[in-house]
Amino acid sequence: MKILVSAFEPFGKEMINPSLEILKLLPDQILGQPVIKLKIPTVRYKSVKVIIEAIEAYRPDVVLSLGQAGGRPDITFERVGINIDDYGIEDNEHNMPSDEKIDENGPDAYFVNLPIKDMMHRLRDEGIASSISNTAGTFICNHVIYSIRHYCELKQLDVCSGFIHVPFLPEQIIDKPSFPSMPLETMVKGITLAIETIIKKESDMIAS
């Protein structure tokens, strides 16, 4: 089993992105399965293009995307991606669409097909705050969730995909003291546990 994990470059006014810092520290193998690490641009269609190129090159079984959700207090497992781009800020190439469909011919939404509740409970069992999120917003993170599931469905690929949002790092809230944060080592442990859960769940399904 191959797991492709993507993370975004910094965006907005932030100089770092916790998702990318997590990616750098993830092991190259988890439970003996290779982890392919991919940095993606925080740019509307280019982000998806980079992931699709990696899917075609590496043929992963799982595509897991990570992103920053400043203001959230915990690691959140996204349930759904919706067919809309409606940005409250510019992306890194100054795109700022309003009420635009991601794909004019696509369905309104896609549910992810990762075991999000199993992952959430695994993290909680280890003392790491986590929850299920029913909205990924309407910025690039949602764009990636929707677009990757849409691509996999159109190509009839037997690929599981999903998205995890992570909070700010402590150093990001020095000038935002009312915002929650989480230490990098805690987030790395949480994402590693989440990937372990995916691998075990997929292995159990194959065995049965």
List the topology elements.
Blueprint: E1 3-8, H1 18-25, E2 29-30, E3 33-40, H2 44-58, E4 62-68, E5 75-78, E6 80-82, E7 109-111, H3 116-125, E8 130-133, H4 140-154, E9 160-166, H5 184-207
Parallel strand pairs: 1-3, 1-4, 4-9, 5-8
Antiparallel strand pairs: 2-3, 5-9, 6-7
Tell me what the structure shows.
- The structure is a single chain.
- The protein is built from five helices and nine strands.
- The chain has a seven-stranded mixed sheet with strand order 2-3-1-4-9-5-8, with helices on both faces. Strands 6-7 form a two-stranded antiparallel sheet.
- It is α/β, with parallel strands linked by helices and 208 residues long.
- The protein has one domain (3-207): 3-Layer(aba) Sandwich (Aminopeptidase).
- The protein starts with a strand and ends with a helix.
- The mean pLDDT is 96.
- The chain is globular, with a radius of gyration of 16 Å.
